[in-house]
Design a protein that fits this description.
Strand order of the largest sheet: 1-2-3-4-5-6-7-8
Structural class: mainly beta
Number of domains: 1
Distance between the termini: 42 Å
Radius of gyration: 17 Å
Order of helices and strands: HHEEEEEEEE
Number of strands: 8
CATH architecture: Beta Barrel
Strand content: over 45%
Largest sheet: 8 strands, antiparallel, barrel
Number of helices: 2
């Protein structure tokens, strides 16, 4: 019974507590996210250069960076929104949504939109995050609406 009470207290504190600022997580240690775009699975690289937690809504982060597909390098700005946190005894999971708007530089610019999953292990001894994995699954749609491709990228 004591353990159950402690668990309920811990869960309620997560529900009422402010989300810690994990803006540095999204920048992926200055490394690009690697993945694919389109049915042909063309390589895509995304690098998030800036990430800032929203002061009014601590579940949201403003980000900016650039995407690279073939030789097309395009700046983007957007938002990550955490929708659910699932704590675990070993692995913790954060679920959310993203939307990144690329600069309007021609027919190969548009909106990246979808969901993300962030999993990590918490080392109680060192009080540090270990074994991080972030995956983004969604679509890219051109501003003119003609092109629409599936996307998938992750940290390395």
């Amino acid at each position: 019974m004591k353990n159950l009470t402690l668990l309920l207290l811990l869960i309620s504190s997560f529900a009422l507590a402010q989300m810690p600022n994990i803006s540095s997580v999204w920048m992926n240690n200055s490394q690009p996210y690697l993945g694919t775009i389109s049915a042909e699975k063309m390589p895509i690289k995304l690098r998030i250069l800036t990430s800032e937690q929203d002061r009014k809504n601590d579940q949201e982060y403003f980000v900016s960076g650039f995407s690279l597909v073939e030789k097309t390098n395009t700046k983007f700005e957007g938002k990550l929104k955490i929708t659910k946190y699932k704590p675990g005894t070993k692995r913790n999971t954060v679920f959310g949504e993203y939307e990144f708007a690329e600069e309007r530089t021609g027919k190969h610019s548009g909106i990246l939109k979808g969901k993300f999953i962030y999993t990590f292990m918490w080392n109680k001894k060192t009080e540090k995050i270990e074994k991080q994995f972030i995956e983004f699954i969604g679509n890219w749609k051109s501003y003119d609406g003609v092109l629409n491709y599936p996307t998938n990228w992750e940290n390395q």
